[in-house]
Specification:
The chain is α+β, with helices and mostly antiparallel strands and about 280 residues long. It contains ten helices and twelve strands. About 40% of the residues are buried.
């Protein structure tokens, strides 16, 4: 199977508390977008899980695609294996969820290639052990998220367009969550509040802006051209909604060469559509 795991945007991200085990309690709204990696998955019968490509600085045992395949392998027939060929296009450390999307793609594809017949709820539960963002990619829908990000309520799909900038700065998620400047006491909002356009924000923005002036420059670029610029995830990518794909592209004209920029649209059912055509 040849798949194109998509990136995600957080339309807002609040932290409303912290569990006794140290995990943060979140509220967010996920949007999937058509900035994607390229992942070829071939089933084999030698029992090996082979990785080709991916991020050179990520050891095989730490690679989320390999870990996803190993997670399902005990449920498959004897000597089931696979070859994973990954071409990365979604920047790492950007808050775009590329690693989680790749892991979800492996779970969805091997469930089919190895004929495991697991339902999406089971795959999402397994995927949560790999990362809090994995379930939303398995669900393939825009979603309102709570808990540590795993409690998902599907949202109506709306076609939207965005200008997205990765300013060439990688931010590791762990240190961002550990930063003492991070606000952890946002007042919870309901799904109805969100849908009625209650004002929201991203609590990681002040932390990211304090760490990198380049993130601030990218955010200001979008703010001047489209307004309502926002950080996604724990950063470092920033985005702004645009009236059309063309206007998103126009907002990104003549950006600095060190920035990785895309005009994108929201998507849904990404795996189902690709698997049907593949």
């Amino acid at each position: 199977m040849l798949l194109f795991p998509p990136a995600k945007l957080n339309r807002f991200l609040h932290i409303v508390g912290r569990r006794p085990d140290g995990y943060h309690c979140l509220q967010s709204a996920f949007e999937l977008i058509d900035w994607h990696d390229e992942l070829r998955i071939e089933a084999t019968t030698d029992g090996a899980i082979e990785r080709i490509g991916g991020l050179a600085d990520v050891p095989t045992d730490a690679d989320l695609t390999v870990r996803a395949a190993r997670l399902l392998q005990p449920l498959a027939a004897a000597r089931s294996g696979c070859r994973l060929t990954l071409n990365k296009h979604i920047p790492n450390g950007a808050g775009l969820g590329g690693g989680s999307a790749d892991a979800a793609a492996v779970l969805l594809a091997l469930n089919r290639l190895w004929n495991l017949q697991l339902d999406l709820a089971t795959l999402a539960r397994l995927g949560l052990s790999l990362g809090a963002d994995v379930p939303v990619f398995i669900g393939q829908q825009p979603a309102f998220a709570e808990g540590i990000g795993e409690l998902l309520t599907p949202l109506p799909y709306v076609e939207r367009h965005y200008a997205v900038i990765y300013p060439g700065v990688s931010l590791a998620t762990g240190p961002m969550f550990a930063d003492p400047r991070l606000q952890r006491d946002c007042a919870p909002i309901s799904l109805a509040n969100y849908l009625s356009n209650t004002p929201t924000g991203n609590v990681f923005e002040p932390v990211a802006l304090a760490q990198s002036a380049e993130i601030g420059r990218a955010m200001n670029w979008l703010q001047l051209r489209l307004g309502n610029a926002r950080l996604t995830g724990s950063g470092s990518a920033v985005y702004a909604q645009a009236p059309s794909l063309a206007s998103a592209g126009t907002a990104l004209l003549e950006t600095p060469s060190v920035w990785n920029c895309r005009a994108v649209r929201s998507i849904t059912n990404w795996f189902d559509k690709q698997a049907a055509t593949g």
